[in-house]
Specification:
Layout lengths: L6 H6 L3 E5 L2 E6 L3 H10 L1 E5 L4 E6 L3 H8 L12 E7 L5 E11 L2 E6 L4 H9 L8 E3 L6 E6 L3 H5 L15 E6 L2 E6 L8 E6 L1 H15 L4 E3 L2 H10 L34 H10 L3 E8 L11 E4 L2 E11 L6 E8 L8 E6 L2 E8 L9
Parallel strand pairs: 3-13
Antiparallel strand pairs: 1-2, 3-9, 4-7, 4-8, 5-6, 6-7, 9-12, 10-11, 11-12, 14-17, 14-19, 15-16, 15-18, 16-17, 18-19
Helix pairs in contact: 2-7
């Protein structure tokens, strides 16, 4: 298994280590629920160094990113970030990702850990006709995520970057504890927070100081378990569960990342057809009724006893104290308020289609 630069630190902190996408990563330290609640109420620190980075440079970098992705990268100015996707010609997901605009001839793509090699091969394989260069510098970066309502107060004393002036989905380069970093106001928890890209040689020092300085404010290390429950409460998609090479953005409720009027891009024709015909299934939020066991990936969803879909992600929400799930269901039963059932351990349990996110950010 691959190991991040924080591997020994995780073990010293009591992290329970598991294999994840070929990496040895902590699934939890003090427990999924206390770590989850720390991020919702105070702050949590995540090692996300397993994520992949792809650099696109050249005179036609923008034109290439426009062809590669369905969102409109032309709307990005240097210092901005965009959520988007890589799509097949059939308009299904190769992956979802972030695009950082470094400059008019330089874009920084951040892809999911499970898909780094596949994504890079896809990106490099679609450069024909464009004057661009693509590189995979993933090994040159460690990445931390500092998430939670107190994230700004914890990080600001350690950096000269004006965090208060940084809006969501914006980034800046600067120093954190004197080390060169790229800091963005992004994350995968639905809370306010920052992602920090830095050299692996600087990683351990920054991790240790962040935890030391943040501990009086309630900062704790957080593993993959709480990362999953946090993102699910906010209705954020997980590649391989909720979206994959069988799912389109329109089915997943991600039509807002598709800009059909920007010009040609991979998968556009299929999306135009699907939009005209209408989707046959939709990804919805499900709130469980009663004290049923948590819904899990792969469980059947029924309507009046008839199978109509499948759970793609599910858990017992630590914030709400009840089961919640995302699921792909037939379009006629996808409206808010529709009563459904989820088959759990051979028994049918009542559920209702609800609006996402399940949990909204406290102001």
């Amino acid at each position: 298994m691959k190991k991040t630069r924080f591997n020994e630190l995780h073990k010293k902190l009591g992290g329970k280590m598991i294999e994840f996408c070929g990496w040895e990563m902590p699934v939890e330290y003090s427990g999924i629920i206390p770590e989850h609640m720390a991020v919702r109420t105070k702050a949590g620190l995540f090692d996300v160094s397993h994520m992949g980075e792809v650099l696109v440079t050249g005179k036609q970098a923008l034109a290439y990113v426009q062809w590669l992705t369905p969102n409109d990268a032309a709307r990005l100015a240097p210092g901005q970030v965009q959520y988007t996707a890589l799509m097949t010609p059939e308009s299904t997901f190769v992956d979802d990702m972030l695009v950082y605009c470094i400059g008019p001839e330089e874009y920084f793509l951040v892809v999911n850990a499970a898909n780094v090699d596949k994504d890079f091969a896809w990106i490099a394989g679609h450069t024909q006709g464009f004057e661009v260069r693509v590189e995979n510098p993933s090994d040159a970066y460690s990445q931390l995520a500092l998430q939670g309502p107190l994230a700004e107060k914890i990080l600001q004393p350690l950096t000269g970057i004006d965090l208060a002036g940084m809006r969501s989905f914006h980034w800046a380069k600067g120093k954190v504890l004197g080390k060169d970093c790229l800091v963005s106001r992004t994350g995968y928890t639905g809370e306010d927070g920052f992602e920090i890209y830095l050299a692996p040689s600087d990683a351990e020092r920054v991790w240790d100081r962040l935890l030391a300085e943040g501990a009086p404010r309630g900062l704790v290390p957080v593993g993959l378990g709480a990362r999953d429950t946090l993102r699910l409460e906010k209705g954020l998609m997980l590649y391989g569960n909720d979206i994959d090479e069988e799912t389109t953005p329109l089915e997943a409720g991600l039509g807002w990342v598709v800009k059909l009027d920007k010009g040609g891009f991979i998968g556009r024709e299929a999306l135009v057809r699907q939009k005209a015909e209408g989707v046959r299934r939709r990804l919805v939020g499900l709130s469980m009724e009663g004290a049923a066991a948590p819904p899990r990936h792969g469980y059947r969803i029924l309507h009046s006893g008839r199978p109509v879909g499948v759970v793609t992600s599910g858990t017992k929400s630590p914030t709400l104290g009840r089961g919640v799930a995302l699921g792909l269901v037939e379009r006629p039963v996808s409206e808010i308020g529709t009563k459904l059932e989820v088959e759990i351990r051979g028994r049918q349990h009542s559920a209702e289609v609800v609006a996402l996110p399940f949990v909204r950010r406290q102001k």
